[in-house]
Design brief:
Elements (H helix, E strand, L loop, with lengths): L8 H11 L11 H14 L5 E5 L5 H8 L3 E6 L19 H10 L4 E3 L13 E7 L8 H11 E12 L4 H8 L8 H7 L12 H10 L2 E9 L12 H12 L8 E8 L1
Parallel strand pairs: 1-2, 1-4, 2-3, 4-5
Antiparallel strand pairs: 5-7, 6-7
Length: about 260
């Protein structure tokens, strides 16, 4: 009897998006990033590997990983309205009880904990930790990476991704006197409660922080994942996509920095 083919990563991702709708809808524009992360993990470790996705949002990454044969869990704090982080806890997440029920129905474990301040010891230790688009929101990246090290087994892997500070688009903004930072009205009005991008990092800065935190870097990439050129027509949206297309020719100017590292 012929062995059945396992579903593609794209098929697993699409199914997970459907099963987590409408909570997954706000992440639709990030599908290419999810696929890239899932490919990295599939190529690094074997089935059954214990994985924690920190800053999991709606739980898309760990649900996909479970369906790919891994022992995956999520950790999230900021999307829940009761934690008073209103810019992340958008209207769809006001129904967080429904989301938690969905996780339970899908057999997905998501820990509601603040990675910087809560006791993480009960979670145990993991073979792989994933962190996508989180570190730029945190005021203390050193503490975040220190606590990440504490959750990993010896020789465990960290897969971390964050927006690149020096994209070609950002460089053009600066030339025209435009800020590359989060909107000033949100930063100014929220004060210490601001949860936007406190700081984005260049690829070399991210490498430095990871190495200083006790990791050996296995792979470091600067890659375009958030936008792509669709068709030849003039629009502001497509102009941005064209700039990102050009950035493929200029090292260090693509939109995402990815690092895979091993705990020493």
């Amino acid at each position: 009897m012929q062995k059945m083919k396992s579903p593609s990563i794209k098929a697993v991702l699409d199914q997970s998006f459907n099963d987590l709708a409408p909570f997954s809808f706000r992440y639709t524009h990030e599908k290419r990033r999810y696929i890239h992360t899932l490919k990295i993990i599939r190529n690094l470790v074997s089935d059954g590997t214990k994985i924690l996705d920190i800053g999991t949002g709606a739980g898309i990454t760990p649900l996909c990983l479970k369906r790919m044969g891994f022992d995956a869990e999520g950790l999230e704090y900021f999307i829940f309205p009761k934690n008073k982080t209103s810019r992340f806890a958008t209207r769809v997440f006001e129904k967080s009880k429904e989301l938690k029920k969905r996780w339970q129905e899908l057999g997905l474990v998501v820990h509601e904990k603040n990675v910087l301040t809560d006791n993480l010891t009960p979670l145990g230790s993991f073979d792989v930790i994933v962190s996508e688009a989180l570190i730029e929101h945190l005021k203390n990246p050193k503490l975040f990476l220190k606590r990440t090290v504490g959750l990993l087994k010896e020789g465990g892997l960290l897969v971390i991704a964050t927006p690149n500070q020096v994209t070609l688009m950002n460089r053009i903004r600066l030339i025209f006197g435009k800020s590359i930072y989060w909107p000033i009205n949100e930063f100014f009005s929220d004060g210490e409660d601001f949860i936007g991008h406190w700081r984005e990092y260049t690829q070399s800065e991210l490498e430095y922080m990871v190495k200083e935190s006790g990791f050996e870097i296995i792979q470091s990439d600067n890659i375009n994942l958030l936008r792509h050129f669709r068709k030849i027509e003039f629009s502001l949206k497509n102009l941005r996509a064209l700039i990102y297309l050009i950035s493929n020719l200029i090292p260090g100017t693509r939109d995402m920095n990815y690092i895979t590292a091993r705990k020493k």
